[in-house]
Design goal:
8 strands; 179 residues; alpha+beta; globular
Length: 179
C-alpha cells in the first residue's frame, strides 16, 4: 500500500461546500483506505494499492465530479514528496518571525512550478521564492495570505492551471499523519 496526500482546490470558499466527513466517506466508498481529512480546506491522506499518483488523482476527480456534479480539481502528492516539502522551510522567515508565514503553492507539474516561479520573479516587487519539485515556496506577512502580491498572482494563475496553496505548518501536519 502506498500513501498519498490529496489536496482539493477551491473548496469551502465561493459557494463550493465540501464537508470533510462526507469527503472521507466518498473516498472510502471509492476504494481508498485509511482515509483521514485535516482542516476544512480539502486536505486528505489516504492509502491505495495503486502505485501511480496520477491514477489516484483521476479517480478522486471522477468521484468528486460524480458526487458534487461539478469539477473540483485535486492534486495528489506521494508520501515522499510531502516529507520533502514538510521538512525545514527553504526560505528564512523575516523578523519578527511570528509575524510571517511560509506558504507552498502546490502545482500539477514541475514545469507549472517553474513557470509560476518565473511569474513571481517578474512582479514589480519581486519576492524571495524557491521552486522545490512541484511546489513554490514563498512568504507572506501574517494576515495577508490572500492580498499579498504573490498570493494575487497565484490566484490569477489558478485560472490557467491546477494549483493550490497551503501553509507550511499544514504540510508538516499532513506529513505526520502519513508516517
Amino acid at each position: 500500500m502506498s500513501k498519498y496526500a490529496v489536496f482539493l482546490r477551491g473548496v469551502n470558499v465561493g459557494g463550493v461546500k465540501v464537508l470533510m466527513k462526507d469527503l472521507a466517506l466518498l473516498l472510502q466508498d471509492g476504494g481508498f483506505s485509511d482515509v483521514k481529512t485535516l482542516l476544512a480546506s480539502g486536505n486528505v491522506v489516504l492509502a491505495s494499492d495503486i502505485p501511480d499518483p496520477l491514477i489516484i488523482q483521476g479517480r478522486c476527480n471522477d468521484l468528486l465530479r460524480t458526487y458534487y456534479q461539478r469539477e473540483i480539481p485535486t492534486l495528489v502528492f506521494t508520501q515522499k514528496e510531502i516529507e520533502d516539502l514538510a521538512g525545514p522551510f527553504g526560505l528564512p522567515l523575516p523578523e519578527p518571525v511570528e509575524q510571517h508565514h511560509g506558504y507552498l503553492t502546490l502545482c500539477h507539474s514541475a514545469q507549472d512550478a517553474q513557470e509560476l516561479g518565473q511569474a513571481i520573479q517578474a512582479l514589480d516587487d519581486p519576492r524571495g521564492f524557491l521552486v522545490t519539485g512541484r511546489a513554490v515556496q514563498w512568504i507572506a506577512s501574517k494576515g495577508t495570505s490572500t492580498t499579498d502580491p504573490v498570493a494575487k498572482l497565484v490566484q490569477a494563475q489558478a485560472k490557467l492551471r491546477v494549483l493550490t496553496t497551503r501553509n507550511h505548518n499544514t504540510l508538516a501536519r499532513i506529513a505526520k499523519i502519513l508516517c
